[in-house]
């Protein structure tokens, strides 16, 4: 039997550890999600109770970033932290590839308009239209926080500015003469020139990237009836339904039968108990009527 020296054992151990480190581990390739350009998609969320609206560039709301954009409209209007059970997806705006800067500009405009709605309100929110008195603070806070209808109108307005403007032609021809020529010549008739007559942006509508380029945009709604809050939509906007999936596990047929049988048995037991209670109450009343002296003695 050959006995190895301690140095040989240490050498072989070091070699084995190096071989284990250099060994290539085979990993299963998982399907990757297609990378989306920053600003190509805008995700819109709404609060279930207060109907507040939040805009995000990610599928999940970021706590710090979202709270930073929610203005203070009164006591307890800005939560200390976001709750996932109170915020639900409202809509998604999708732009074509290569239009990330346009999406960032749209997001900026939507946030600015929402902030103006929540800070610049008049007597229609502060006063009661019937008697002209000021309404309660809590009721006023609810009205200010409800920005669902305003946000839909803002989306329609901002996306409408991205539609392609038509070219207008000057139909009347113009006649010009060269002043340096001595001999009279025939008038030179020029062809009508095309001029781009873009409408002037309204006040506060400065800085929208891609205005007038006719960019096709797709909106997917959680409830497509929400799109009716806007008066009109431009031709470059396409509407659709947001794909919605619930975390419900599939139940086998045998389990369904077992659950249905259990529910039937529970219903039968419940009805039997109710009937017994009614019978017992009737028997007690009959005994009281038949033996009134016993009740009097018991009271004494």
| Number of helices, where a helix is a run of at least 4 consecutive DSSP H or I residues | 8
**Percent helix:** 25-40%
Structural class: alpha+beta
Please give the radius of gyration in angstroms. Answer: 37 Å
Largest sheet: 5 strands, mixed
H-E string: HEEHEHHHHEEEEEEHH
Strand order of the largest sheet: 2-1-3-8-9
Number of strands: 9
**Mean of all residue-level pLDDT scores:** 78
Distance between the termini: 107 Å
Question: Which percent range describes the beta-strand content?
Answer: 5-15%
Silhouette: flat
Question: What ranges have pLDDT less than 50 throughout 5 or more consecutive residues?
Answer: 168-179, 186-205, 295-300
Plain-language structure description:
- The protein has helices spanning 6-22, 63-68, 100-119, 123-126, 137-145, 148-160, 253-290, 292-299; strands at residues 41-47, 53-56, 87-94, 168-169, 175-176, 188-189, 194-195, 217-221, 237-241.
- Among the domains are: 41-165 and 204-241, no CATH class; 254-283.
- Helix content is 38%, strand content 12%.
- By secondary structure, it is of the alpha+beta class.
- It is found in: Mitochondrion.
- Residues 179-193 have a biased composition (Basic residues).
- Belongs to the mitochondrion-specific ribosomal protein mL67 family.
């Amino acid at each position: 039997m050959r006995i190895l020296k301690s140095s040989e054992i240490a050498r072989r151990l070091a070699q084995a550890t190096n071989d284990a480190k250099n060994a290539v581990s085979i990993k299963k390739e998982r399907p990757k999600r297609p990378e989306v350009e920053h600003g190509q998609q805008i995700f819109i969320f709404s609060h279930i109770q207060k109907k507040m609206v939040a805009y995000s560039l990610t599928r999940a709301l970021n706590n710090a970033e979202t709270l930073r954009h929610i203005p203070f409209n009164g006591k307890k209007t800005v939560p200390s932290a976001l709750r996932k059970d109170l915020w639900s997806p409202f809509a998604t705006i999708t732009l074509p590839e290569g239009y990330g800067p346009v999406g960032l500009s749209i997001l900026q405009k939507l946030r600015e308009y929402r902030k103006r709605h929540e800070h610049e309100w008049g007597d229609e929110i502060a006063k009661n239209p019937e008697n002209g008195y000021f309404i309660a603070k809590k009721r006023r806070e609810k009205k200010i926080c409800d920005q669902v209808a305003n946000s839909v109108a803002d989306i329609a307005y901002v996306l409408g500015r991205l539609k392609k403007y038509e070219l207008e032609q000057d139909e009347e021809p113009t006649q010009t003469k060269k002043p340096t020529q001595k001999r009279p010549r025939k008038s030179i008739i020029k062809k009508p020139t095309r001029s781009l007559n873009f409408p002037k942006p309204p006040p506060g509508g400065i800085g929208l990237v891609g205005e007038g380029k006719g960019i096709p945009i797709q909106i997917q709604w959680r409830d497509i009836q929400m799109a009716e809050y806007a008066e009109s939509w431009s031709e470059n906007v396409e509407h659709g339904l947001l794909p919605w999936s619930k975390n419900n596990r599939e139940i086998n047929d045998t389990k369904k039968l077992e659950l249905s049988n259990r529910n039937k048995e529970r219903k039968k037991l419940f009805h039997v108990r109710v009937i017994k209670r009614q019978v017992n109450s009737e028997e007690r009343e009959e005994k009281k009527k038949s033996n009134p002296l016993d009740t009097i003695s018991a009271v004494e």
